[in-house]
Automatic annotation (TrEMBL):
PROSITE patterns: TYR_PHOSPHATASE_1, TYR_PHOSPHATASE_2, TYR_PHOSPHATASE_DUAL. GO terms for molecular function: phosphoprotein phosphatase activity. Residues 109-167 form the Tyrosine specific protein phosphatases domain. Residues 45-188 form the Tyrosine-protein phosphatase domain. This is Protein-serine/threonine phosphatase. Keywords: Hydrolase, Protein phosphatase. It comes from Alexandrium andersonii. Pfam families: DSPc (PF00782). InterPro entries: Dual-sp_phosphatase_cat-dom (IPR000340), Prot-tyrosine_phosphatase-like (IPR029021), Tyr_Pase_AS (IPR016130), Tyr_Pase_dom (IPR000387), TYR_PHOSPHATASE_DUAL_dom (IPR020422).
């Protein structure tokens, strides 16, 4: 434990001695205090990741209109809408997600949709801010995913690139695993529609997805991984289901699905994104119950 009397510094002196610009000047700080001060400092920083194009921040920045205008932000990815409002819908274009910073949250379902949106904004001259509550885990995961795809980087290289401008960025363990898996998909190491090594199911077993809304407040449709049932007839007809074997996809639309057009659109976009990001040639077939 640090002896304040021995070094003749008050606790206030120590807190005020934090140097955000030179890490070597912070050697005297206890690790936990250093991390707290570092987090506090970056809470008010809009970190520029890709010059003139991609930024990452906390909600404190994302809720500060003056700061957003100062950095000429045009598009905002809000990854934590449960606790962070999309504050200025009339000023900026938003894409909003309700993600929790937990190890079992499947953020990967939104990777390709988000990368597509960010790239579209940047290609039109936009400046994109990605944020969560602190700008540490959820937003960092999305930014690293973009860097991995855009610059053909490994997870480690993308993480290092991001930490150079925002050293507090650190995706949780679950997100890190999903980014490592993304790297295999982007590189072709894991073929389109294949199961990763260590999967409890047989590697030749097709993938199964349920077409479901992301969140009641953002009900756009996603393909959510589902467990195989031993009896196909038990599949709920209120939903649409997608079976994927390699690049071949078959979408079965239940008789009680309310918006068939929305389902077809979501599945078609999913297939297209596989072609763009995993560089595979997909085939897609639709089947409707009762036809």
């Amino acid at each position: 434990m640090l002896n304040l009397e021995e070094i003749n510094m008050t606790e206030e002196d120590i807190l005020n001695s934090y140097d955000p610009d030179n890490e070597e000047n912070n050697y005297h700080l206890p690790h936990h205090i250093y991390k707290q001060l570092q987090l506090k400092h970056f809470r008010q920083v809009c970190s520029e990741v890709v010059p003139g194009a991609l930024f990452i921040s906390s909600f404190q920045v994302a809720s500060d209109l003056e700061s957003l205008r100062k950095h000429q932000i045009t598009h905002i990815v809000n990854t934590a809408a449960d606790i962070c409002d999309s504050c200025f819908p009339s000023e900026f274009q938003y894409i909003t997600y309700y993600l929790k910073d937990t190890n079992n949250e499947d953020i990967s379902l939104l990777f390709y949709r988000t990368l597509e949106w960010i790239q579209s904004a940047i290609s039109m001259g936009g400046r994109v801010l990605v944020h969560c509550r602190e700008g540490v885990s959820r937003s960092a995961t999305m930014v690293i995913a973009f860097l991995m795809w855009k610059y053909n980087l490994s997870f480690e290289a993308g993480h290092e690139m991001l930490q150079k401008v925002r050293p507090i960025c650190n995706p949780n363990t679950g997100f890190t695993f999903q980014l490592l898996l993304l790297g295999k998909k982007l590189s072709g190491t894991l073929a389109c529609g294949s199961r990763p090594a260590g999967s409890p199911l047989a590697p030749d077993r097709p993938l199964l997805f349920r077409v479901a809304p992301h969140h009641p407040r953002e009900p756009f449709l996603l393909l959510v991984p589902a467990e195989w049932s031993s009896a196909w007839p038990s599949i709920d007809p209120r939903f649409a289901w997608v079976v994927q074997r390699g690049p071949q996809l078959v979408c079965w639309i239940g008789s009680q699905v309310l918006d068939v057009a929305a389902v077809r659109d979501a599945v078609s976009k999913h297939s297209h994104r596989l072609e763009v990001f995993e560089r595979c040639q997909c085939s897609l077939k639709f089947l409707t119950e009762g036809e």
